[in-house]
Design a protein that fits this description.
alpha/beta; binds magnesium ion; Adenylosuccinate Synthetase, Chain A, domain 1; binds inosinic acid; 12 helices; 16 strands; about 350 residues; 10-stranded mixed sheet; two-stranded antiparallel ribbon
Length: about 350
Amino acid sequence: MPLTLVCGGGFGDEGKGKISAYLAISDSPILSVRTGSINAGHTVVHKGRRFKVRQLPSAFLNPSTRLAVAAGALLRLDVFFSEVKELGVSSRVVVDRSAGVIEPRHVEAERRDKVLAGIGSTAQGVGAAMADRVMRRLRLAWEYGELAPYLGNVADLVEEALDEQGPVMVEGTQGLYLSLYHGTYPYVTSRDTSAAAILSEVGVGPRRVDDVVVVFKAYLTRVGGGPLPGELEVEEAAKLGMLEKATVTGRVRRAAPFNVEMARRAVRVNTATQVAITKLDVLFPGAAGARRWQDLPPETRKWVDWVEDQLGAPVTLLGTGEEATHTVDLRREKLGPL
Ligand code: IMP
Ligand code: MG
């Protein structure tokens, strides 16, 4: 913090939700901004309760954090209102006036689309709505009366919060390799998922950012089509505990070992100041639940040090379990006082 951006360094599902939730608890941002859309599901587990958010920031976990949806984000009204209700956060949600709105016809169009089926799209209407936005025929949040109580200017809110020295978090979605520009086109999503693009969605300039936390999982997963270097057979992935199911679609995720070259490029393109690695407990069961460096098994520490050396960026946050607080936080040791 003060302005921390969290983004993904893989094919999404790196555990950004978990890391954002941890940062929300530990750093108490006064504002957190969600970008992207409902094709991206973020899982947050806290005190044994499991939440899946597709529209609102994972920082909802901290009751003192204001929750914003960026101008470049796309809303689906049913998803938005059900999350607001389920999480009981109505009084602290702000939607940028210029956020786009996905309509049922966008979902229908994507369900019929053969190209998208081949890519393995989540068919949530996100790309179709984005296409309409580019063609300047998408309706925006300010045009929907039911959103009126939530409307605001999120870029202004970020500036105001920073002027008050308040920590602000920006939550990216998906990962660099699903980026429309920098990913494995055409097997990508309908937006740029890099740090620069995430900022652009919010309406904040690059020099306002203090920290870019690029999140990796200790192994790679991918849903849908497209290349996955080192892809494992399903049985092998299952044996290693890497078989996961997608948050939004329930599909089985393809899995592969951690890829240093890909991670290095994600660090560079996103200008990472810090690296987070989640699910270390899958690679190293002895790491499960650890919250301190000294509680990690020696081979885990050795691997993390090796990754840090390879990436040339400090590895500051380590996920050791699905609970938000199952995190080893090395920021003070590695970066000095926060
Ligand atoms: P779409 O963005 O729903 O059209 O999907 C395009 C591709 O991106 C498909 O391979 C999806 O599985 C993938 N994708 C989109 N959002 C996510 C995500 O949040 N996590 C993982 N994969 C995603
Ligand atoms: Mg996900």
